[in-house]
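One such given next:
>
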Amino acid sequence: MRDFSQALAGMEVDGISLDNLGLSSRTRRRLHMFLDELIVRDYTKEYRVLSELDYGEDREHQIEKLIEWRENSRKSVDLVLKVFMPNVDADYPNALVIWPTVDSRGKGRSSRQAMKIGRALRRMFPVLTDTEIDNLVDVVKSKLIEQEFIYHVSKEASAFKRAYSWTQADSQNMDTTWSKKHMVNSCMRYEFDNLPMHPCEAYASGDFEMHWLETPEGKIAARSVVAVARAGAKITPQPAPIYAVSEEAWQFLWDKLKSAKCLPIADSDWIGCLLVTHFYNEVNDMDGMIAPYLDLDPRGLELTDCNKYMVVSRQGSIDASSYSGVLFTGERYNCAGCGCGVSEDDRYCHYNSHDDSSWCETCYWETYMNCENCGEDESIDGSREVQRASGFTQHWCEGCCDNHAVLCTDGELWQDEDVHLTVCGDYISQDEYENHWFTCALTGEIYSNTSKRSLDNGDNVAIENIEDHNAFFDTKYIFDATNDCYFLDAPKPKDDNVILEESEAKSA
């Protein structure tokens, strides 16, 4: 098991003052919460392995050592954080400020050192994996460091090009939906230097505005194209999905769009809006149009106004679901859900179904889901939420739920590897176990806390097992009311008269 005190090896920690000298403990508390989740995860994984071993002194000893490791790890994490006292500082963006050594604490706040977040975390907790460090860096950036953004709005072609293809700000993990997307996944984020212009410059018809965020260093943090007119006639602003590098950037831009009286993204309708036509005649000897992938359905365009513009149309023959930056006139596959056209490359098919229908991305994921256990796409109607000991909720298909999940007493489905079986035959989650149940030191079985009694050595046992022991064995558990615990009492030796009487009875 991991030693979370490794960073303190060789340090004389005992006896030093761990006063934080007026420093905020908010960062320390946040890191402690994350690391405690890792400890619980490691503990649960190891406990499952031990619980499958045959009952015996060796197993019980290992379980005791595991419990001891968990408690010592929590204390070690707390001590490491108190020694180094990590904190964020507005004067050092994207950094953690720590005391690099125990000796430096005695010199006061002037001896604190700013380090890159990942390096500081590795200094304090070298036992963490690279993935755990990366996740913890995201926690620090998203929860503790306040980001500064500059908001821009423009209708110029150069603005669309900049917002799409300029250098992006540092990325963080973020939850995504069809209307809230991570910028690193954008198909239009490249420079398209193989084309005479960026495909997104076609938005500069006057019907669209570019709304985007930049960091003080000029890097792009979030963007959204907003339709503000339909063929030149003003309409209520209607935004496309927001692309962002972090939750904070997404929220900042969404607040700006709401302030601009934009419709909810789900209500946006670009049908009738115009894009500028830029022909490109060198692709397969055909007249292609340099234009972007449209972020909203329908993804169809049609030439209009003497080919000066392309109009967004549900029946448009130009397939605007291509990522190439060059679109062509031709037939499109029609989505079985909304009827919009989809290209051969971008159409979704559920190959386990009998009709092999074509779907656009939005309708497909409204009909099907990707099981987070087996990885197969199945009907969303049969999906269920399954809880994990890691604290995450996953969506599983019906087959995986039937074969690999169990219903716990909290009414939730849990992965069968993340649950405990009680002496009553009920399945409980790790949270339930820690709050309402315990493992009896006598039998290794799980009992309700209402049955919990303490022994004089600190072990917890079930009163039922104490009573069973006393009924079948000469040694008895005796209750010590003064210390509120039980101790094992040896049977009293018989006196000489009793022994003599028994001997005479046998002789007779």
